[in-house]
Amino acid sequence: MDLxxxxxxxxxxxxxxxxxxxxxxxxxxxxxxxVTSMGILTVGGQQLHVEKLNxxxxxxxxxxxxxxxxxxxxxxRRRGFWSRLF
Length: 86
What we know:
By secondary structure, the chain is mostly beta strands. The protein has two helices and six strands; from the N terminus they run E-E-E-E-E-E-H-H. It has helices at about 75-80, 80-85, and strands at about 10, 15-20, 20-25, 30-35, 40-55, 60-70. The longest helix has 5 residues, at about 75-80. The protein is globular, with a radius of gyration of 13 Å. The mean pLDDT is about 90.
């Protein structure tokens, strides 16, 4: 994983700014999944939309009703189908 600085700023549970982002895995109005320098960050909520995305700078801004933020290790995502079965 990168050693890029990683910061999360949540304002009034309506605006989220994240730095240290290297990839957006998926997004829809209820969930945004990101690869950050500190692991995979999944943001859950309602009416979520990406206001700003700059992967060169490693920054993203998300607006909507933020209900949850959960981290997981990036290695879990990269494991194959068979390794999860056994």
